[in-house]
Specification:
elongated; Fumarate Reductase Iron-sulfur Protein, Chain B, domain 2; 9 helices
C-alpha cells in the first residue's frame, strides 16, 4: 500500500520557522510509524532528524505527535491510524530540529521530585534489605511503569500554558516514592508539590492518562497525591 506521511521539518541553521514536507512511500498496515520514518531517513532524506533507541516501547525516546495525538512511534501501527499520517514534535518544549525537542526542562522538573529512594534509618537486623509486603508494593506499582517519554506532560494544557508547572510525569515520579512504605521523604516531596507550580496546576483534563503509552492511570495518581496533601495520610 502507499502511505502518505506529512512530517514537520525545522533546521535552525536554515529555517526561520517550521514547515511540513510530504512523502509517499510503500508500506503495509503492520508497519510502525518508526519503520516509515527510518525508511524515509535511510532511502529518501538522510537529513530527517528524530530520536529513537530501543524501538520496543521501553526507552521512551520516540515520543511525538502522530495525527494530532502523542504516541510512541515504535508502538503506533499504520493499521490503527490509516495510510495518511501527520507527524510533528511534542508540544510545549523547544524544537531543536525536525521532530527533536529540548527535553532539559522536562528532566529538570523530574529531578525536582527527588526520584530516588531515601531512607537514612539503620538497616534491618538481617542487614540486607528492607522488606515490603505485596500489598505495600501494589500501592505504587502503576507509577513504576513510567519511561519518561514526556507524552503525558506535553499533552497537558496546563503545561502548555505555563512551562513552570512540574507536569504529570514529575508527579508520577513523586507518587512512586511518596507511597513507597520504605521511603522516608514523602513529606518533602509533598511540600514541593504544594508549591504554586505543583499539583494545584492540574485541572483534571485527563489528557495525560489518554496519552500515556504505558497505560498508567496518571490522573488517578495525581488525585492520590492531592488527597495525601490534604489529609496528611498515605493510605
Amino acid at each position: 500500500m502507499e502511505i502518505t506521511i506529512k512530517i514537520f521539518r525545522y533546521n535552525p541553521e536554515k529555517d526561520k520557522r517550521g514547515h511540513h514536507e510530504v512523502y509517499k512511500v510503500e508500506g503495509n498496515e503492520n508497519d510502525r510509524v518508526l519503520d516509515i520514518l527510518e525508511n524515509i531517513k535511510g532511502n529518501h532524506d538522510g537529513a530527517l532528524s528524530f530520536r529513537r533507541s530501543c524501538a520496543h516501547g521501553v526507552c521512551g525516546s520516540c515520543g511525538m505527535r502522530i495525527n494530532g495525538r502523542n504516541h510512541l512511534a515504535c508502538k503506533t501501527l499504520v493499521r490503527d491510524i490509516g495510510a495518511e499520517i501527520t507527524v510533528e514534535p511534542l508540544l510545549g518544549l523547544k524544537i531543536v530540529k525536525d521532530l527533536i525537542v529540548d527535553m532539559d526542562p522536562f528532566f529538570e522538573n523530574y529531578k525536582e521530585m527527588m526520584p530516588y529512594f531515601i531512607n537514612d534509618s539503620p538497616l534491618p537486623e538481617n542487614g540486607r534489605e528492607r522488606l515490603q509486603s505485596p500489598e505495600d508494593r501494589a500501592r505504587f506499582d502503576d507509577t513504576t511503569k513510567c519511561i519518561l517519554c514526556a507524552c503525558c506532560t506535553t499533552s497537558c494544557p496546563s503545561y502548555w500554558a505555563n512551562g513552570n508547572y512540574y507536569g504529570p510525569a514529575a508527579i508520577v515520579a513523586a507518587h512512586r516514592f511518596i507511597f513507597d512504605s520504605r521511603d522516608e521523604a514523602a513529606s518533602e516531596r509533598l511540600q514541593i508539590l504544594a508549591e504554586t507550580d505543583g499539583t494545584a496546576r492540574c485541572h483534571t483534563a485527563y489528557n495525560c492518562t489518554e496519552a500515556c503509552p504505558r497505560e498508567i492511570q496518571i490522573t488517578k495518581a495525581i488525585g492520590e497525591v492531592k488527597l495525601a496533601q490534604v489529609t496528611g495520610t498515605l493510605k
